[in-house]
Specification:
binds adenosine-5'-diphosphate, HD domain-containing protein, binds nickel (II) ion, mainly alpha, HD_domain, HD/PDEase_dom
């Protein structure tokens, strides 16, 4: 089932340059399974949900938040997975959207919490920095605008750190993900400090 799902996901994501390529999915799967085993979550649901979590992203779909979860469940049922597993996977995927309806209530299943944490962890740290600049190129955003008065509202890659990336650490559910986030967050803050120092020709040799 995992191999069939991998093949399906690879064909759906082939050629993506917006930060949702196969290797994003593979990283979210691996960190997700690490969190799942530490937290005692259902490993099968987490592996299938992380694999399928980006097959139909709402941003490229006219804002349809239901399509991804629905397509994931349809795929699993067609492939012979029990409806209970398909439903658990769909509900975990529904929770991964950052900008979608607020899903942060205590109603989230443990597996949904793990999938959301895993996806968010891939947006921070060294990988998160890389993805943010790759996305900025795709969206034709400037890296930084030192004239923007409020760095959190400028439409730049650096602004995205303040809007989202530096907040991820405090929006995680599981203890395991929070521990992993600590070093990733510190690395990003260090990066930003260096970025400003070099920008201002202020870096020490
Ligand atoms: P995911 O689906 O992995 O949770 P998103 O779809 O929100 O993430 O974004 C994909 C990647 O692009 C992430 O690493 C995210 O931080 C980055 N990104 C999204 N929006 C912006 C933006 N406006 N500027 C820079 N990077 C962005
Ligand atoms: Ni993702």
């Amino acid at each position: 089932m995992v191999a069939a799902t991998e093949t399906h996901v690879k064909s759906r994501l082939a050629g993506d340059t917006t930060g949702h390529d196969w290797w994003h999915v593979d990283r979210v799967r691996r960190i997700g399974m690490r969190i799942a085993s530490a937290e005692g979550a259902d490993i099968e649901v987490v592996e299938l949900a992380t694999l399928l979590h980006d097959i139909s992203d709402h941003k490229f779909n006219g804002g349809d938040y239901e399509r991804g979860p629905r397509e994931a469940a349809e795929f699993l049922i067609r492939a012979g997975e029990p409806a209970t597993v398909a439903m658990a996977v769909a509900s975990a995927i529904r929770s991964t959207s950052w900008s979608g309806r607020d899903q942060d209530g205590p109603t989230l299943s443990l597996e949904a919490q793990v999938v959301q944490d895993a996806d968010r962890l891939d947006a921070i740290g060294a990988i998160g920095i890389g993805r943010a600049f790759a996305y900025g190129g795709y969206a034709q955003q400037p890296m930084h605008d030192p004239c923007a008065l409020d760095p959190s509202t400028a439409n730049t890659v650096i602004a995205h750190f303040y809007e989202k990336l530096l907040r991820v650490k405090d929006r995680l559910h599981t203890q395991t993900a929070k521990q992993i986030a600590t070093a990733r967050d510190a690395y990003m803050r260090n990066f930003l400090q260096r970025f400003y120092e070099e920008w201002n020709a202020d870096d020490s040799p």
